[in-house]
Amino acid sequence: MSQSPTMLFCAGAVKAGTSWLNVYLRGHPETYLRSIKEMQFFNKLDEGALGARVKWTEKDIAGMQKDLDSGKSRFPAWMIKQIADRVEDCQVLTAPDPVAAYLRYLTSEAGGKRLGGEMTPEYGLLSLARMRDLQAWSADVRWVFVMRDPVERMWSHVRMWVKRAAVAPGAFAAACIAKFNDVLAGQAPDVVQRGDYAAIHARLVQAAPEDKRRVMTSEGMITPQGVIRVTDFLGLSRREAPLQKRLHAGTPVDMPESLSQRSREWLRLHYDFVAATLGLPQDWESFPEFGSEVA
Predict the structure, then answer these.
(1) Are strands 115-117 and 141-147 parallel, antiparallel or unpaired?
(2) Thinking of the domain 6-148+197-249, which architecture would CATH place it in?
């Protein structure tokens, strides 16, 4: 009987390089990760929203199937795999015991692989009790928490939100600035919570032993040494990574200087937290005391 794989969960942050990490790990020969990067299982379970997740997934399946049938898909074999995983995901979400079904979903075909799990950044928002539940799930559960320059992360998050709102291209930049001003005015707490490094880190420290959690910056992770730190932490053999490849970079929009200055000051506590916890990375250039302008 094969040994159960190490289970990996992601504590975020949103728009901090977790998609890049997921693709790298999924391509590693010693891992078993499904084609769905973010199942969002436990956050939806705790919100009582598994039914809504089923509807969203069914809509996603229908769209993929339409593209597949019309010949629009550039990678049909990969699309077929994604559809199959999403069909099984719906079965998990509607199972009598969805938690047990979720665990089977992550491990049933792992074979002798060393690592399984998934990469839902929103798991960083789980309650301490839920994080502790996950930590006790198996003999070896590990967490990765990736932080990005706070101004850049929040600006990227806002651009993602506006893009999903299907704003007309000519109004995109103005909509991003308006949404960012909403964040600074306290009208978008979800954006702020997903980048609240101190709160996420505090729960993670209480839930997982030090040797079962790895806290990194995205800027430091996507480097040769950063990849070595990840693979060594996860018990994987070292393997080269596509360091130049960026995923979901978003539509580029220049942040006005006045907004940049306001956001730096508004996010000062986040920089202070990282400086005290890890030491402020040299790559973080958004805060005037530590570098130059945000690009």
Answers:
(1) unpaired
(2) 3-Layer(aba) Sandwich (3.40)
Using CA atoms, how far residue 229 sits from 66, 68, 232, 266, in Å, is 41, 39, 5, 32
**Does pLDDT of 244 surpass 90?**
no
What number is the average pLDDT over the span 10-20? Answer: 93
Cα-trace Rg, the chain? 20
Please name the residues in contact with 85: beta carbons below 8 A apart, sequence gap of 6 or more.
34, 35, 36
- Taking alpha carbons only, the member of 142, 162, 158, 140 closest to residue 150 is 158
pTM metric for this prediction:
0.90
Q: How far is CA 280 from CA 99, 266, 293, in A?
A: 38, 17, 16
Model pLDDT for residues 275-290, shown as the tens digit of each residue:
888 888 877 755 545 4
Six token digits for residue 284: 């973080």
The dihedral built from the CA positions of residue 54, 60, 61 and 63, taken in this order, carries a sign that is positive
Q: For the segment 76-95, what is each residue's pLDDT rounded down to a tens digit?
A: 999 999 999 999 999 999 99
**pLDDT of 245 above 80:** no
| β-bridge partners, 144 | 10, 214
The SS3 assignment for 140 reads: coil
